[in-house]
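Pasting as-is:
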Amino acid sequence: MNKKLFGSFGALVMAGTLVLSGCGNNAASPAAKAEATPKALLKASVASAAAVTSYQMDSNFTMNELTVTVPPSSADTASVNQVVSMLKGAEFNMKTVYQGDPMQAEMNLEVKLKGDMEMTIKLPIVMTKEKMYVKVPNIAILPLPQDIVGKFIELDLKELAAEQGTEFNDAMLDPKNSQKLSADLSAAVLDSFDEGKYFKKIAPGDAGLPEGVKAEDVVRFEVTNDNVKDAITTLVNVALPKVIETLDTPEYREMLGMTEQDLKDAKSELSTTDNEQMNKDLEEMKKYLTVNTFQIDTALNADKFPIHQKMTMDVNFQDPESETSGKVSLTGSSTYSKVNEKQTFEVGIPTDTITMDELENMNY
């Protein structure tokens, strides 16, 4: 099967996540109260993202099912089986604490791998406006000197930029800028998809919300086997051009280190898309890819704040040419709390640190 088809569906996954990834403040806009359509609710939450000043977020991503069958004669059989065994049932959990002023973020990532290489990896990460700290994990298959295990590697972002011959772009790390960019991109993607085809409200009681999450509205973005071709066509022909247009401002070009020519080239590439060939490729994809479920639910509380989001994906694929087939089923969710409140950091700013220079000069 053409790799571009999987790439297109992957891009659709990211687009859907971007549409529903906004977080916001506790004040709904008058428009959101006047209109209860799914898009109106999502637009209110996306627009409020630029105003958030702090939050906590608990996220989980679980690979519920993963099967990949390749011909026994394939040279990749052993490595594919090993990777599938490790990732099937894998869990990725992350607790994030964030505040905007002064900028400080703390992410505690936990990865649980299954199979013959079953292990749990915990990786605390701390960020400030100019520095990043990454804790050296204790991993059995990656033996490291015990005198650095548990320490935090201190990365000075200004120094790293200078070493790479570039200028440190603090605008890119300014949370207010990134929040505004996220809101603008989300709005561009959101406006591209037809409300009647892809969005609907569902009863909170039918949404399978976790205990303690009280929602007044739940909005679902859904791609089915019947509309996946139209969804990818909309993404390529409508959403991506709007995204490029959104980025084509002096503010965002400077923030992302892009030039006008970069965006002109991107526009040119999209404008030369062979729609007839893409249509043929998508018809081919429908033969090989079956979308059992692709849903992203956003739960909003009484103030229209998106307190919980969940993605569910279940697809089957079959490629007659390579005799490869399989299934991918996963769920991911994020639950927000303590929005715009004073935050408590578990790690704080690390003091038991080691610089990259010190690490590179160690003999191990």
